[in-house]
Amino acid sequence: MGKLELSHVPSVPASETAEYASSLLEDSFGKEKNETSNLPKAIANAVWKSLAINGVFAGANTIASYMGPLLITYFVNFLSENHDDSGYLHGLVLAFIFFFSKTVESLTQRHWYFGAQRIGVRVRAALSALVYKKSLSVKFAGSSKGKIINMINVDVERIGDFCWNIHGVWLLPFQVFLALVILYRNLGAAPSIAALSSTILVMVSNTPLASKQERLHSRIMEAKDSRIKATSETLKSMRVLKLYSWEQTFLKKLLQLRETERIWLRRYLYTSSAIAFLFWASPTLVSAITFGVCIILKTPLTTGTVLSALATFRILQEPIYNLPELISMIAQTKVSIDRIQDFLREKDQKKQIPRQTSAASDIAIEINSGEYAWEKNDQNSTKPAIKITKNMKIMKLCKVAVCGSVGSGKSSLLCSIIGEIPRISGAGIKVHGTKAYVPQSAWIQTRTVRDNVLFGKDMNKGLYAEVLEGCALNPDIEQWSDGDLTVVGERGVNLSGGQKQRIQLARAVYSNSDVYILDDPFSAVDAHTATHLFKKCLMQLLSKKTVIYATHQLEFLEAADLVLVMKDGMIVQSGTYKDLIADPTGELVGQMVAHRRSLNQVNPPQEDNSLTRVPSQLNQIEVTEENFEEPISTDRFPERTQEEVSETGRVKWSVYSTFITSAYKGALVPIILLCQVLFQGLQMGSNYWIAWATEENHKVTGEKLIGIFILLSCGSSIFILGRAVFLATIAVETAQRLFLGMISSVFRANISFFDATPSSRILSRSSTDQSTVDTDIPYRLAGLAFALIQLLSIIILMSQVAWQVFPIFLVILGISIWYQAYYITTARELARMVGIRKAPILHHFSESIAGAATIRCFNQEERFLTRNLSLIDDYSRIVFHNSGTTEWLCMRINFLFNLGFFLVLIILVNLPKSAINPSLAGLAATYGLNLNVLQAWVVWNLCNVENKMISVERILQFTKIPSEAPLVIEDYGPKPEWPVDGRVELIGLHVQYGPSLPMVLKGITCTFPGGKKIGVVGRTGSGKSTLIQALFRVIEPSGGQILIDGLDISRIGLHDLRSRLGIIPQDPTLFQGTVRTNLDPLEDHSDQEIWEVLNKCRLADTVKQDKRLLDAPVAEDGENWSVGQRQLVCLARVLLKKRRILVLDEATASIDTATDNIIQGTIREETSRCTVITVAHRIPTVIDNDLVLVLDDGKVVEYDSPVKLLEDNSSSFSKLVVEFLRRSVQE
């Protein structure tokens, strides 16, 4: 038998499909479409028929289960009488009735459980679909991403599981009532009342414990939420953390969060052990009180009545125990339902209806005055994000450029046009026709490149080819092994920034909309590509469209029909480029001056007719233009994101042994088992004593009878308490050991691990799997062991009565084991698939939430909904068949054990009177009633333990990740003041991204002298970023070495290396927290130092806008700062650290020229004595450097001072410069 695949599993019945279920639920939820629309009512409406049928089964099951205790009295009496032949018949009939009621009980129970599972599947599917639909329509001011994902992960599951317990509400009183009837028939009124009151006493004493457990549980959930949130954020920015060498600090933060979680967990588990003690001790307590009352009132006790009462108490144990659990389930479900209901009731943003434009109207966009702000309820921010003071109309086919310095509100203006920012006042903005939007930070799906470009449209070969050409994607596609069918990793990890930007530009162009809104589309690409995009895309492909684009590159303004200049969220100037340039006092001219300044660094200013000099060069460029179309090699061959590895076959024994021995080397395990054996023995002893002592021929006084009974019972209860406490201790310790192993291993992993592993996969291990290990598995494993011990002890007891029983049970056990083995092969794979099929739903969810603006703008909600429904169905069909297979097995094994019990009864009926001890035989029959419950327990636990152990297996998988080089190497620590000069030597450096992948750097040898500024330039994919990664040992070189101040960096620890270098990474990353924690997470610096740096980076004013100053909050991913501001924060971080070697990785791509000049100036002043290595896209950034290194295809082409290189017109560097100039001065 091969591996079980999804395609082998049949699809779900029509009534269970997500589409059907969610439309049902939506109809009933929508009927009450007002503020009070009520989710529980809607769910009930959608599934009440199935619930009613299910209830009938549950009721029948309860009645059948009480037949046993009722009949046991007759059976014991029959055994202790002398009987003639007709009596035998009576015995056989009794045995048959026993068998029949047991069979009915089994059948109804299986149907009841399976039905409950089906309803659960349906409810889960419907809710997931509704939450998804809602999350697409709610705008971002709403819930955070983590919360929505938790809703799907935790709340929806919990509501689905509640379908099991829903009948408990009315079954509980019904069970208690039946028990009272039986007791009343056997013992009379007073003892039954005593039994009832003691039952109620136990229930009442259980309830405060249960509510405490409930409170602790929600505390655990809160702690877990904050830990998962922190984990998710840390994983997202792992690359940056490793470059800054901050990952250990962030790990400490996570461990502190886990510590809080663990404190609550410990208290929760100890409370649970108290509840478990009550559960096992309750039958003992109730029976002691009841029999005590009988003896005081001199009620005659016979063996039959005593055993019947004991059997009844044992059945009562379940409802007593289930009451608090039921209450807590109801409470938890209520919390979950409320969370989802609040979310579903959130106001939908009104969807902009694309207005059908009449042929007459030439207006594409009407902008009316108004105010827009991201958060309506934020008291700290005083001003709206965007304030539009006068009405404007933008005609069709117009090209509108939006410019302004960092944080002036360009992106916000574009967002308000596509209706993504809540409007506070004013008439709003009308867009006529369909729109396409390209966000500033790229949003790419985890699909193939082709899927990303088509984005749900049909393939049109001609258009597609044009788009790829226009967006300069062809060279990249030729590089990839799979061409445009290459799969993009999660959040586009295996693409460079420029590639992501171009892919999403292609997606917009291909969509063939009427209005295009492009947020800084040229920032992430190099000069040559930007010109290409501008000419080919904007001017040719989109010539018949209305385009609004924000840009920092002032050289792209001239071609626009209308230029809007933004400052502080207002449009301060608007008009054509020529008019605006004519106004010397205007904002635009101020920015132009800065731009000129940066160009003048390129053109030696001594020729003041600099601009006239360019055309003469243009002619010679026309000729060389062709050489620039060299294929661009991507530095990383997008490796396929690895499919999730799931082990197949049995969970290995090593997993069990690791799990059992991880706490205290497993020393407590035998103690726990011993406690269980002693408990079982004493409990049977006490029951046998009371059955034996009530026989007529043993004259035992009442005091002695009850005294010994209580003594034995107390003994058994003490062992139960011990067992529960030890178990909780083990559980906490084991969970912590596994967690530490996994998290420290993940944090030490290589960066390539994070590129290839979607973060959702790591998250699911630290959330779902960790929860299972925290609260579930230890109890499952223990439950299995205890149930096995009980089962064996019953079989031993029966064999004491009649040895013939033993071989019968051997046969039955043999057949059960065979069934079990047959079943587990399928079930195990199904259980593994449940875990794996859950991840894509979550992944699709988080991806959709991240790109919600884009999805809405392209009107693609339908397609994403359909995809989501099919993912939910894939998950449902596995859950559905998973429960189906379990019921199949239980059905058969139940029947076997019922048959076994029937045979035992027949043997007892047929044995001669002299051969049996009636009280012992009665006891065996009483315990035999429990057989099928117990055996179902064993089977269920066996399967479940194995399924749950998969969580341990998955966590252990992540404890063996290959780690990076050690953080600190003791004997090779560099001197504290190293590096002094900051001299970097590269000797024959070869780098490749993997053993089978091609070399990216091919033997680079050069020296960066200390204290100099070095610029690294080259086309996209020439290996610039790779060089930087090798310097930080993100990738270990496959040959050659790098020396810093003569010290070979591969000999020292990573922490020592990375903490001595400064870097401004390509993607500016901010963390949730405050301004202070973002600048200085290690808390090494004083406030004064931080303010100094903020002033240098021109951020002080921005920070002072918020009254909380340095403690002002920074949102998830720094959403409340503009991209340019984030970049400045990254600069501030580096300046704060004061390092001798500083690396700038194309850091200035998303900044306007004025800010760019500020940054360059700041860096020049602050780093006069440092070595600065700049990887540049914009030529002015490196023109005033001391040296320029030109890379091409991983080799050094030129390495000299820029002045020398510029003198030679044929040098590669000159060509790059000319091209940049030519673009800047727009022919």
Automatic annotation (TrEMBL):
InterPro entries: AAA+_ATPase, ABC1_TM_dom, ABC1_TM_sf, ABC_transporter-like_ATP-bd, ABC_transporter-like_CS, ABC_transporter_C-like, ABCC_6TM_D1, ABCC_6TM_D2. It is a multi-pass membrane protein. The chain crosses the membrane at residues 51-75, 87-104, 168-187, 193-211, 268-293, 705-726, 777-798, 805-824, 893-911, 920-940. GO terms for molecular function: ABC-type xenobiotic transporter activity; ATP binding; ATP hydrolysis activity. Residues 344-593, 984-1218 form the ABC transporter domain. Its main location: membrane. Pfam families: ABC_membrane, ABC_tran. It catalyses: ATP + H2O + xenobioticSide 1 = ADP + phosphate + xenobioticSide 2. GO terms for cellular component: membrane. Keywords: ATP-binding, Membrane, Nucleotide-binding, Repeat, Translocase, Transmembrane, Transmembrane helix, Transport. It is found in: Membrane. Its EC number is 7.6.2.2. It comes from the Eukaryota. Residues 56-332, 671-947 form the ABC transmembrane type-1 domain. Belongs to the ABC transporter superfamily. ABCC family. Conjugate transporter (TC 3.A.1.208) subfamily. This is ABC-type xenobiotic transporter. The lineage of its organism: Eukaryota, Viridiplantae, Streptophyta, Embryophyta, Tracheophyta.
